[in-house]
Fold these 2 entries.
Entry 1:
Amino acid sequence: MYQTEIGIDVLKAKQLLEKGELVAIPTETVYGLAGNALDSHAVAKIYEAKNRPQFNPLILHVANQEQLNRYVENVPDDCRKLMEAFSPGPITYLLDKNLHVPDVVTAGSKKVAIRIPNHPLTLQLLNSLRFPLAAPSANPSGYVSPVSAEHVLQGLQGRIPYILNGGKANIGLESTIVGFNNGEVIVHRLGGISIEQIEKVIGKPVKILITHDAPETPGQMKSHYATKKNFIVGDLESLKAAFAEKKVGIISFSTIQSEDTPHVVLSSKGDLAEAASKLFAAMREMDSQNVDLILAEWVPDQGIGRAINDRLRRAIH
Ligand code: TXA
Ligand code: MG
């Protein structure tokens, strides 16, 4: 057991990581649970602290393209273009790994998922380290990803020594994962960079290949973003009528809800980026209310709205 501390001491985070300890780190997407990616003991601790299945590989975090080049075999032209446009930022590249990347990080795969996060504290930390950080989202496996240091503490208190506090994550959804195959760009997970943004940069349509139950990205299991309370998504007016005798909590996109019902409006001005940044905190808040179930509605299926709908779909149970 650790006495988990929250603070803004980058040097302390660095020293703990150098000793093989884990530190939760802020990113623009969600908080990560980081360890030295080149130290298999540290990586083993990540799986243990999260209770994460060993077959679900981890994302490697680096400070810049030069560091990224040290861990991958080759970078396709489309990937270079995407890096120029979006990194540092909420996008992860699935590339051929080289010998420096331990198999525990990739769960035995020849591909490594690698990204340059866009958060000043974490970039400062990564720049000061001589190794990349392996980091999944800093939540117990299966629960909603954390977008603040307090969320991390709620899930991992006692399991890690330090949480580097970088405030609220401003994107609020995980990174988009893209792979490359024979000139094709394949999106494996919808996230902070939209399909439209990617297609504009590469000048051709992407292929979307989102698997929920194993192959390319095993972590895409459906129950990945589950609240403890039952979670139902659909037309709010019909859902409210159908569950009129239940105590419900409501997550609406932009419509105002009655004051007597616990609720969160994701963006009263109907802004998808704002809605994305509030979704996970809203799910946690409704989960903590005295309600029997949580009702939510779909958002417009465009831009980052597609990633929001993806997380809503996976939270349903
Ligand atoms: O925004 C993010 O990506 C956050 C922050 C912390 O960087 N990280 C994150 O990690 O969401 P995690 O572990 O919750 O999700 C990583 C996803 C999983 O679905 C995993 O299966 C997939 O990436 N992944 C990682 N390495 C992979 C690999 N070598 N091949 C295929 N999928 C991989
Ligand atoms: Mg996760």
Entry 2:
Amino acid sequence: MNMFCYQCQEASRGAGCTLRGTCGKTDDTARMQDLLMYALKGIALVNAEARKAGINDEETDSFVIEGLFSTITNVNFDKNYFVEKVKEALALRESIKAQLQRINVNVEDLHDSVKWYADSEEEFDRKAQQVGILSTENEDIRSLQSLVTFGVKGMAAYAYHAANLGYKDPDISKFIEKALIATLDDSMTVNDYVSLTMETGKYGVDVMALLDKANTATYGNPEITRVNIGVRKKPGILISGHDLKDLEQLLEQTQGTGIDVYTHGEMLPAHYYPAFKKYPNFAGNYGNSWWLQDREFESFNGPILMTTNCLVPPKDSYKDRVYTTGVVGFEGVKHIPEGPDGKKDFSEIIEHAKRCKPPIEIENGEIVGGFAHEQVFSLADKVVEAVKSGAIKRFFVMAGCDGRFKDRRYYTEFAKALPRDAVILTAGCAKYRYNKLDLGDINGIPRVLDAGQCNDSYSLALIALKLKEVFGLDDINELPVSYNIAWYEQKAVIVLLALLYLGVKDIHLGPTLPAFLSPNVAKVLVENFGIGGITTVEDDIKMFMGA
Ligand code: SF4
Ligand code: SF3
């Protein structure tokens, strides 16, 4: 076994990647990610002591958040990035320790993660092999530690985006620290970890609310929007991932250059924000979800900017047109750094675009989205009326991720097979499995309501809570809402934990349950929360519709 990673839905054989990731992550990168996680836990331990002593450095919080985000599936494939991050982590840990020593607080004996040290890549690699996920022997404890750790990675992604827009919450960082420390604590029992999992869900809700506030305060509330999926005649830049601030800067810098900007994958919902509508060169959305990028980046012809996940290892035919920024990285791919003033200079990408042909059209027409909380609330009367009259019988929350395997066709078939009085509420790249189907509308309400990115899943929780209030129900589970969620990476884990924390029961998760759930932990989730998998479209629709 050269590595062990089981954090995403595409873990090899439904168990874990051991030689190379299905995602393309190499074994040496995987080991350096494990070591970075261990180094971050060491920082968490010393920083918790520093907090107690009244020393609180925001830069440490940012470092931890960024480090966690960089280890999420399809964010960063560059081993050297992680080697450098581990070095920085050790230096940061030592500097916090030095501050503590000055006030006579000695943390050296807290744990190995606080005192180990190495400075060569060979030693890093040896250490990494001792501290990976499998170093926890008990499979149930390992499973719960993983559930919390992957939830916290998702939480870090949301905190990172919010921080980019100037919104930070020290309590979220404090919780992340607590959770990381707990994964090192041998005295924690299964029950302790179960409570910690719920607490992770609580902070999941908080961080999603924070990001929602950051996005809507900065760019306005998303509104119903028709997005062009064809192409224009000029050369373009394709921007993907989830970071709206990167998009804003790119739009600003491309004004008057003759270059159009198109979104790909999870950047599609940017079109729904009022703030981006003023840019005449914001041309539309090109292509589909992340895993189709190896074909769609090819035909796009122009440069591509990856702001976050999901990056697929680029093919040589278009690799020189791919640029990364933020926490994204890939060896041999040009990275655009942030300047000291927090700004990014995209001029190289713009010049590159000028030398490229316009995109080849792969589709045409429009798709509609923008059904985030405020927009749906403004339609509340209409929605309530449709439910009361029986025109809408049931809502299906089908948010989440898309993935590359054929079994995801289930979601397209499921959407097609739903009765005509059912409405799909979606967010995340899972939508691409059904957002171009002609599913019609119910009294003018489209049957697929897209709230935005996976980062906007909070909208769906708010909509459910609003419906509960309007219908005067005591329990969110009494609503005619079913949850059939597709997951892939770790942001979906925090969304799931947030929903569990909000009391949502009977969530179905597919296309397969996480490899990191041990049989006993899966049993706890089934018994306490009614979590289930998926079966066939036909049987699942019968089950959901209560037939
Ligand atoms: Fe495997 Fe997923 Fe980990 Fe990649 S992220 S190595 S596909 S489990
Ligand atoms: Fe998609 Fe990666 Fe999760 Fe943001 S882009 S939902 S998988």
